[in-house]
Design goal:
With about 230 residues, the chain is of the alpha/beta class. The protein has eight helices and seven strands; from the N terminus they run αααβαβαβαβαβαββ. The N and C termini lie far apart (about 40 Å). It comes from Streptomyces inhibens.
Length: about 230
């Protein structure tokens, strides 16, 4: 079979089917109470007009948290708690999720969702406020994983803060880097897409990070901080 060098193979029908299978693969792999909490959280998000992580992205986050044996995770963008449920399921039983969101009402939904999923109240620390005001108050090197799902225009600042917050060997993840396909579209794009391109370039060219771009959901950019 001829190999294409320096080019991306076209996504054929079979590849689309494979991607859809991979996206759905993680469904049903957590307990019933958590699945019910996820459905409720997604319904709340839909009513509020908030996008949530997909099943594939959630499964990847859970796996990455487990791989890092994460005891301390910071999340930018609580939403209604969907991503937090996946992260908590991957973390150590004594792990604490610190989650930041500008909208306290969203965090109220997330608290209910975490409780319904069976997590004790001390497993999550909710901090309302703008991420770039909150993150500087968190401890240097005190986190195993940082998940960024906030303002796309602030993604480069999130990266800088994440590098400070992470321990050596810790993970940083950015949700939504495909921007519904606009990141690789040659047409004129809005400022937030241009900023995402800067983020992708910065992570790939960093000597401090070991990166990978996972084709789940709307694109999950992950990188490990070198020791």
């Amino acid at each position: 079979m001829r190999q294409l060098r320096g080019q991306e193979r076209a996504i054929t029908g079979n590849r689309q089917t494979s991607l859809a299978f991979a996206e759905a693969y993680g469904a049903g792999t957590i307990d019933d109470s958590a699945e019910a909490a996820l459905r409720w959280s997604r319904d709340c998000a839909r009513e509020a007009g908030i996008r949530t992580v997909t099943t594939g992205t959630g499964a990847a986050l859970r796996m990455l948290a487990a791989t890092a044996d994460a005891k301390a995770v910071a999340e930018i963008g609580t939403g209604t708690g969907v991503s937090g449920i996946y992260l908590l399921h991957g973390m150590r039983p004594d792990g604490v999720l610190t989650t930041v969101d500008l909208e306290p009402q969203r965090q109220t939904f997330a608290k209910q969702a975490f409780r319904a999923a069976g997590f004790a109240g001390n497993r999550a620390r909710f901090i309302p406020g703008r991420a770039l005001d909150v993150l500087p108050r968190l401890a240097d090197g005190g986190y195993d994983l940082v998940f960024c799902d906030g303002d796309l225009m602030e993604c480069l600042e999130y990266l800088a803060e994440s590098l400070r917050l992470l321990r050596p060997g810790g993970l940083v993840c950015f949700e939504g880097v495909f921007a519904d396909g606009r990141t690789v579209d040659s047409a004129v794009q809005p400022a937030e897409v241009l900023r995402l391109r800067e983020l992708l370039r910065a992570v790939r060219e960093s000597t401090t990070l070991v990166p990978s771009l996972l084709p789940v959901g709307d694109g999950l950019l992950c990188a490990v901080k070198r020791g």
